[in-house]
C-alpha cells in the first residue's frame, strides 16, 4: 500500500508537507499546481512552490515531492514538465480535476475532462518531453457534468503513456459533496493496466479500508482527512491512536516559526485558519480555539493564543 498526500492549493504548502511527513506514513507528496499558460516558467516559480527541489526533491523527512502542473497547451506543459524534472522533481503530475472557475475559463483542470482528445495530446506531449525514468502521472475526476467520459478519459491517459492515475471519485459537478464513488474506481481499473490511486472522502482508517475494498486499489491519496487528523496516514498504516491535542498544538506553533519571505505577516494567519477549519472536524478543542483565532490577523497574536491554550490543563 502506498499513501500519498494530496495536492491542496492554498493549504498544503512545503511547511505543511514538512510537518505531515515528519509525523510519517506518507510515501509521496504532490505540490499545489503550477499554472502553465503560454511560456516556459522561470526556475523561481518552481522553487517557490516546491522549495524541496533544493533538497533533492524531498521533504526534510525524506519523502519525495512531485510537482503538479495545470494547463491546456500540450507544448507548454511539456516544456515546463521537462524543466520541473530537470530542477529535481521526481516526475510530474498533471491536474485534470481542479473545479475553480478562473481555471476552467482559461481551460485547465476539470474542464478538460470534456475533451478526451486533448487529455491524450497533453499526456503524450508531456510523456515524450520527460525522460523515461521519471513518472508522468495524472489526477482526474470522474467527469465534468457527469461520468459519461470517465472510462474513455482514463483509457486516453493510459494509452498516451501515463505512469499512474489518481482518481478523485467525483465529478466536477459533485464538487466536494460526499459521497465519493469508490466503486467507479474499480470500473476504471478494469479498462487500464497502470496503477490507480483512489482518492476522495477518506477521513478515518475505516474509510480507507472501505475505499480499498470498493475500489480494488491498494494505493490511496489523502487530502482533507490528513489535515483534520495529522497522523491519519500512520493510523491507517499501523493502527496508532489519534495524535493527542497538545501535540497538535505544539505542531501549530512550530508552523509559526517558519519565516515566509515577503508575506506581509498574513501568510501564517491565513494558512493556520485554513488548517483549523479542518482540525475542528476532528478535535473539539480546535473548534473552541478557532472561534477566538478567526478574529486575529497577526501571527504573533495567534502564537500567543496557542501558547495560552497549551498551558491550560487538558
Ligand atoms: C482547498 C483544496 C485545494 C485543492 N487543490 C488541489 C490542487 O492544487 N491540485 C489537485 O489536483 N487537487 C486539488 N484539490 C483536490 C484534492 O487533491 C483531493 O482530490 C480532494 O480534496 C478529495 O480528496 P479528500 O476527500 O481526501 O480531501 C484541492 C482540494 C481542496 C479542498
Structural summary, described in words:
This protein is of the alpha/beta class and 314 residues long. The protein is built from 14 helices and eight strands. Strands 1-2-3-4-5-6-7-8 form an eight-stranded parallel barrel, surrounded by six helices. Strand 6, helix 7 and strand 7 form a beta-alpha-beta unit. The longest helix has 14 residues. The protein binds flavin mononucleotide (FMN). The site of flavin mononucleotide has 22 residues, from strand 2 and helix 9. Flavin mononucleotide binds next to strand 2 and helix 9.
Strand order of the largest sheet: 1-2-3-4-5-6-7-8
Helix share bin: 40-55%
List the uncertain runs: none
Distance between the termini: 36 Å
Chain-wise SSE layout:
Blueprint: E1 3-5, H1 14-23, E2 28-35, H2 43-49, E3 65-70, H3 74-86, E4 92-96, H4 101-105, H5 116-129, E5 136-143, H6 150-159, E6 164-171, H7 182-191, E7 196-199, H8 205-215, E8 220-222, H9 224-228, H10 232-238, H11 245-257, H12 266-279, H13 284-293, H14 299-311
Parallel strand pairs: 1-2, 1-8, 2-3, 3-4, 4-5, 5-6, 6-7, 7-8
Main traits of this protein?
binds flavin mononucleotide; 14 helices; eight-stranded parallel β-barrel; alpha/beta; 45% helix; 314 residues; 14% strand; globular
